[in-house]
Design a protein that fits this description.
This protein has 341 residues and is an alpha/beta fold. It folds into two domains: 3-122 and 287-305, NAD(P)-binding Rossmann-like Domain (Rossmann fold, 3-Layer(aba) Sandwich); 123-282 and 314-335, Dihydrodipicolinate Reductase, domain 2 (2-Layer Sandwich). It is 33% helix and 25% strand. The strands form two sheets. It has a nine-stranded mixed beta sheet. A six-stranded parallel beta sheet has the order 3-2-1-4-5-6, with helices on both faces. Helix 5 links the parallel strand 5 and strand 6 (117-119). Helix 4 (78-85) runs parallel beside helix 5 (100-113). The longest helix is centred in the last third of the chain and has 20 residues, at 307-326. It is globular and about 55 Å long. The two termini are 37 Å apart.
Length: 341
Amino acid sequence: MALKLGFVGVGGIAQRHLNGAKARDDVEIVGHCDVNEARVREVAQQFGGRPYTSATDLYDSEKPDAIVIATPPFAHGDIEEEACRRGIHFFVEKPVAVNMELAERVWQAVEESGVFTQVGYMYRKSEALQQVKALLAGRALAMVQAHFYMPGLPPAPWYQEMALGGGQLVEQATHMLDLGRFLAGDVAMVIGRTSRVRDWTPPPGAEPQTGMRTYAEGFDIPDTTALILAYESGALGTLSCSLVPQGEWNVGFRVVADGLLVTIDGANAKWTGDQSGEAKASDNWALNVLYEFIDCVAAGQPPSIPYVEGVKSLAVSVAGYESVNRDGPVSVRDLLPPGVG
């Protein structure tokens, strides 16, 4: 029997998941929900299933086995909690929330309901990066170095508002912070600094921009951020990120370990030291995280990136901003809900 799958939020990243789910013979897409009625009707016509503008209507009418949540960050909360109340398993795109209070609320609902969850940290499921994790096992790690440079402001109209998107640390660079946790373990402490180095005010008579933007109304997030991280293992780390317009996307990641230097480029990796080599991810590696979720739900087994992992990675991002507010180091564990180790 095919797994009955629903979608909540059908713009942006949802398109990858929709196409991935449609390609599977063991999945039946039963419904879609989005606040944009015209868009959700178009998606339903393309991928099958019925359109809804209310997640609870989708849940109660279609009774899906599982859902994929791909909404903007500010929309999380009720969607997940209502799924938990009905015993519906869910896959949720990062970030899981814009603040720790909301993340704790949903985590408690997940714990009480026992539903299976998976967070869309796709780099963890790259075959190449899983090979890197195995290579690093048992080695002393010294440094985790990452950067995330964007050539401007993404087109989503909420991105420039901290209360809606959480800023670059929460919405985008979370991938780098989570990858650090995946390879080097949990972060103990964060020191952060932020800056806004350019004027994002729209010029007089400015036309709406498509694609990456160079100005925006209501811009209240940092455009440049730097973090120092202390891992519980003793490793140190750095993250630098910026969305100041320049030539291109540039994302990088390196790990210095005893006997090994690992360089990660997207989902691929190479290494030198007491052994040398490289590994490349499969062509459809970005779908692995969704496919694992589908397979696990069908088999009645928990996936490998449960909701609590999203909570832990969010805490690292939040610690970065909280360090700026406190003008000093912040313990990540102090931000986690009671019971999250």
